[in-house]
Amino acid sequence: MSDFNRTRALRHAKRLMKEKLACFPVERPRPGEPGSGKKPLTRHGFKDATKDPETFEALCTQYPEFNIGIATGAVSSTVVLDIDPRNGGHNTLEAFETQHGKLPSTWTCRTGGGGLHMYFRTADFPIPKDNAGWLIGPGVDVLGEGAYAVAAPSLHESDQAYEWLDGLAPWQCKLACLPRKVRRHIKAAIDRKLAKGRRKPVMVEETVTSVTEGSRNATFFQKAARMRHVGMSEGEIHEALMAINANQGDGPWLGLFRSNRGTGNQSLFARQPARQADVRR
After folding, report:
1. Predicted confidence (pLDDT) per residue in 232-254, tens digit
2. Rg (the chain; Cα; Å)
3. Dihedral (C-alpha) 258, 263, 268, 269: value to the nearest 10 degrees?
4. 186, exposed or middle or buried, with CB in 10 Å at 0-12, 13-18, 19+?
5. pLDDT tens digit sequence for 26-66
6. What is the largest CA-CA distance in the chain?
7. Residues 6+ apart with CB under 8 A from 16
């Protein structure tokens, strides 16, 4: 793996925070561990993101090396299109621009995996995180509320660094707004999801509630059952519960969820019809 330069990393993070981007430390990739290099290092993950350089440096003090994460959504006034060519993202983007018009020049980072992160100013409505392609299409994830992007000059598991495209770093050009046609398309996709009884796209802070000691398992199961009842998939439920658990600190209740996944116990994840009165609109 490439050598870590702490001074350089802190300098880049400071430049990002100067552009009003909320940053927090993320793990560096570990040799022989696919998928490493993106996990938050702080206890509350992206919720610990800050725009204050001194606070950021304090968050990094206990870690010998780190990548840089940018919390997306309202906290940084940004939404990021994560274009992954390995999953057809470039083709999806080309088709999307043919239909909705070419996206404007904006902050753009080449990822270590060969994709692109295109940053845009947030819309006048909350845009949720989408890693299933229902907002734009296959291979284009949307990093909005409750999400984050790994930023340059962080290191990818491929041993390639994230890097800003020439002339498209935050300190070199303006952050573009999502075009009106694109905002309308995204809003329509959200409305269609709601019409089908799927979960309401809300700020993460609205979904995370306190769990008292002694009631974790029961609360965990009730929340998971409720999510399944309104049509959320197993993966979506797992992601939501991980976010809740991150706000609670260490505890045994996620072990219950992990132990039930893939064991043949389908009582929780068997799809059940949602009663109209139970669907949040």
Report:
1. 667 777 767 776 665 555 554 45
2. 19
3. 100
4. buried
5. 999 987 788 788 999 999 999 999 999 999 999 999 999 99
6. 56
7. 23, 68, 70, 151, 170
Note the pLDDT of residue 247.
54
**b/e 167-183 (16+ beta carbons within 10 angstroms → b):** ebbbeeeebbebeeebb
Closest to 50 in 3D by CA, of 66, 69, 37: 69
d(CA 177, CA 103): 9
Q: How far apart are CA 279 and CA 281, in angstroms?
A: 6
pLDDT digits 0-9 by tens, 83-127: 999 999 999 999 999 999 999 999 999 999 899 999 999 999 999
C-alpha distances in angstroms, 191 versus 199, 207, 213, 232? 11, 19, 37, 16
Q: What are phi and psi of 101, to 5 degrees?
A: 100, 155
CA 247 from centre of chain = 16
In three-state form (DSSP H/G/I as H, E/B as E, the rest C), the secondary structure along 115-149 is CEEEEEECCCCCCECECCCCCCECCEEEECECCEE
> Over the chain, what HEC string results?
CCCCCHHHHHHHHHHHHHCCCCEEEECCCCCCCCCCCCCECCCCHHHHCECCHHHHHHHHCCCCCCEEEEECECCCCEEEEEECHHHCHHHHHHHHHHHHCCCCCCCEEECCCCCEEEEEECCCCCCECECCCCCCECCEEEECECCEEEECCCECCCCCECEECCCCCCCCCCCCECCHHHHHHHHHHHHHHHHCCCCCCCCHHHHCCCCCCCCHHHHHHHHHHHHHHCCCCHHHHHHHHHHHHHCCCCCCHHHHHHHHCCCCCCCCCCCCCCCHHHCCC
pTM above 0.90, yes or no: no
